[in-house]
Design a protein that fits this description.
By secondary structure, this protein is mostly beta strands. It has a single domain, classed as Ureidoglycolate hydrolase (Jelly Rolls, Sandwich), CATH 2.60.120. 2% of the residues lie in helices and 50% in strands. The protein contains 1 helix and 17 strands. Strand 10 and strand 11 form a beta hairpin. The relative contact order is 0.32. (2S)-(carbamoylamino)(hydroxy)ethanoic acid (UGC) binds at residues 82, 126, 128-129.
C-alpha cells in the first residue's frame, strides 16, 4: 500500500535542513534608489562547484501535476544549488528528502504560496518542479558547465501526495 504523505506549510525553519526560502522577508529589507525601492537582500546563495561552472538564470514553465500524485523518484544536483521562484504567483509544491546512505529518505512535501520560492541546497534530494493548479512559470537559478549534475533515484515503493488545494 503506497505511503500517503502529509503536506506542510513552507516555513524557513521547517525547510532549513534542505535549503532556504526566498520571500520578501522584512528582516532582510533595506531601502535603496532614494527610498523608491525595497531591497530584500541576500535571501539565498547560489552554490556552484567544479571547473567551468557557471551560474545561469532560466525560466521553467511547469505543467500542473494531477493529484493524488504518485511520487516514485527524487533527484539531486551534486555540483550546484537550484532555486525556484514563482513568476506568476500560484501555489506549488517543494518536495525534498533527507539523504539516507546516498539515497533519498522519507519525502517531505511543502506547500509554497505564489510569493514563496526556495533554493535547494547543493546535493539536496528534491522532486522535479511541481506546479499545482495552472501552468506556472518559475525563475530558476542553477548551474551550467561540465560534469554530471543530475542524479535520479527511484523508490522501491511509491508515495502518494494528496491534492494540496
Ligand atoms: N532537470 C531540470 O533542469 N529540472 C530539475 O532539476 C528540477 O528540479 O525541476
Ligand atoms: Ni532539480
Amino acid at each position: 500500500m503506497p505511503h500517503l504523505l502529509t503536506i506542510e506549510p513552507l516555513t524557513e525553519a521547517a525547510f532549513a535542513p534542505f535549503g532556504t526560502v526566498i520571500e520578501a522577508d522584512p528582516a532582510s529589507m533595506h531601502l535603496i534608489n532614494g527610498g523608491s525601492t525595497e531591497r530584500f537582500h541576500a535571501l539565498a546563495y547560489a552554490d556552484m562547484t567544479g571547473d567551468g561552472a557557471r551560474v545561469i538564470i532560466n525560466i521553467f514553465r511547469g505543467q500542473p501535476r494531477s493529484f493524488p500524485y504518485r511520487l516514485t523518484m527524487m533527484e539531486r544536483h551534486p555540483l550546484g544549488s537550484q532555486s525556484f521562484s514563482p513568476i506568476g504567483g500560484g501555489p506549488w509544491l517543494a518536495v525534498v528528502a533527507p539523504d539516507d546512505g546516498g539515497k533519498p529518505g522519507l519525502p517531505r512535501v511543502f506547500l509554497a504560496t505564489g510569493s514563496q520560492g526556495v533554493n535547494y541546497g547543493r546535493n539536496v534530494w528534491h522532486h522535479p518542479l511541481m506546479a499545482v493548479d495552472a501552468v506556472s512559470d518559475f525563475l530558476v537559478v542553477d548551474r551550467d558547465g561540465p560534469g554530471n549534475n543530475l542524479v535520479e533515484v527511484f523508490y522501491d515503493e511509491p508515495f502518494i501526495i494528496p491534492n494540496p488545494v
